[in-house]
Amino acid sequence: MTRTIPQPAAGRGTRSGTARHRIAVAAPARTVYGIVADVATWPRIFPPTVHAERVDGDGRTERIRLWATAGDTVKTWTSRRELDDEAMTAAFRQEIPQSPVAAMSGTWTVTPTGDTSCEVVLDHAFTADGDAPEALAWIEQAVDRNSTAELEALRSTAEAPGALDELLLTFEDAVSVDGPLADVYDFVWQAHAWPQRLPHVSRVDLGTPGPDLQVLEMDTKAKDGSRHTTKSIRVGFAPGRIVYKQLRVPAMLTAHTGEWVLTEAGDSVRAVSRHTIVVRRDAIADVLGPDATVDDALAYARAALGTNSLITLRHAKEYAEHHRPSATG
């Protein structure tokens, strides 16, 4: 991978920078461009991406909202993208950047180098918010770190055709709650209280780096008595949705994203826990034994995660159906 320089973006600051990252990929250009174009898949492919969703668009011009790790923090922004399927380019410009970024733009370019190979170039141009040199240095480091991680993940995913589909599983569990939707949401969002409320959670360390944003580290207990530590970024969309991505996943997974979705259904609330996981093939034998298959690993992870989800949902149901705030609050 190499790093060179494109043109800078305009912004309200006076310190600007540019960066170019490139990587050779042993996969068809169309396969690679398909990953770049579909932002909904980014959280389970790109390590820095916590959550991504299209706000509006028609397949050529779109607005997307992204949440991503940047160093030791989490940033969110809205970008407009221009997709050219024929040229296999995706140009972007942040409409609502977050400090210390005053402006950020760039382009993904996928160029065929053969029938089953291509080169990917990721350009960035940015301006820091204000004149402090450390702000520009922070942006340069974050762009370099995230671009490197994204391109490596793009390469490894594209070079294993069909593997992601084989290793990927999305599933959900649901309960019906005869109680207020707001109480169900509060139970799931107020994770600091989980060690007192949930039998499988023994420790929680909860940070709130921004509005409707949490960094959740917790220890959970398995049926065999073992303890597992996970770390997640959670984004709240009150009153009915919480999405998350695990940054520290169990040994047998490479990715775990999910969401809690609450909807009113007549006089009740349908509470859903949805998971998307990607199994780590080379860790299956260590966890489940030498004869275990990918299907065994997916079934094992589904059972473990589904069990904990249902425990949480059932306790949320109990809380919402019987919880009454005290007169003193």
From TrEMBL:
It comes from Yinghuangia aomiensis. Transmembrane segments: none annotated. Gene3D superfamilies: 3.30.530.20. It comes from the Bacteria. CDD domains: OtcD1_ARO-CYC_like (cd08861). This is SRPBCC family protein.
